[in-house]
Predict the 3D structure of the following.
Amino acid sequence: MRANDYCLILAAGFGTRMGEIGKHLPKVMWPVFHKSLLEVQVLFARSLGYEKIYINIHHQADIILGMTKDNHNFKNVVWLKEDPDILDIGGGIHNLAQQSEINYQGRLLVLNADQLLWFTRSDLQPWLSALENHDAILLSLMVNSSQGYNQLVLEKSILKEIKPNKEIHPPQDILTYTGNALINLNTLKRASGVSKFFESVCSFDRKNLCVNVSRHPYWDFGTKERYFESLKRIVREIKVAELEEFYHFLESSEIFRSDLADPELVSYNSRQPESFNLTLDGVIENGTKGVLIAGHKLGSNGRVAFGYKEITDYLK
C-alpha cells in the first residue's frame, strides 16, 4: 500500500430492506457469525494491507458508535458522520476526499458494508495498476437479471450507461456492479453536498473501467432474504477447495469456526436444519429456522432472534 491509499466503508444507509428488525438494529451491525457486517469489512480491508480506513455513517449513527466503541478492531478507524443529511454515495466519497489529510489525492478503495466480495492483495495489485490510466475501476459481476440487479452497459469495457432491471427482457445474464470500486482521487472533480455515485464520481462521460470479477466469491447481505441465503452459503460451501483462503481469513479473524458448521444440515452449532446459533452457549437441539444471536436465549416456544425471512422474536 502507498502512503496515500485509503479505504472507505459505506455504512450510512437506512437499511429499509431489512424488515422490522432493521428499524432497531442497524444493518451493518447484523451478525456474520461472530462479527458484525461492519467489523468483517474492517478486518477484510486490513487483510488487504489498508491502514487508513474510513467509515461513513448517518442512520442510527449513535447506535453504531455505541456498539463499536470498545471493540479493538475499530481502533484508528476514522468515522465520517454525515449530519444532518445523508450525502448519498457520491457525496460520501467527496466528503472523504475533502478531508484535509486527503485533499483529493491518492487511491481510494470503496467497500459496500453489506456486500462481501472476497479477493486478496495479489488480486488487488493489477486493479491498482489499471487505475493509473482510468478514473475508476468498477468491480463487476455476471448475474442473471432475474435476481433483480441492474445492468452495466459498456463500450470496450468502459461504462457508458446503466440499464434498470425492469427494462431487461427476457431474463438474461448481465454484468452488474458489486458496490466495490477503486477511485482515482487525483482525477475526481471536486463537488460538495448530496450527490449520487454515478453522477459525481463515476459519471458516464468519465473513464470508468469495468472489471469482471465473477471468479471471485461474492456474498450479498443487502436484504433480509439475501442475508440468510449468504449465511447458508458460507456454511454449505465450507469444503469447496477454491474457497480455502477465504475460510482461512474467516477463522483467523475469529469470524467463523469450521468445527461448528454442518454443511449437510446447513446449520451452525445446531442440530436443527438452517439454524444458526451464534451464542456459543450450547447446541440448539430444536427450534425454527433462523439465527440466535448473543444476548438472546432460545425460548420455550422454540423461536429465535432472527426468524427465517421474517423477524420472530428479537424485541421481546
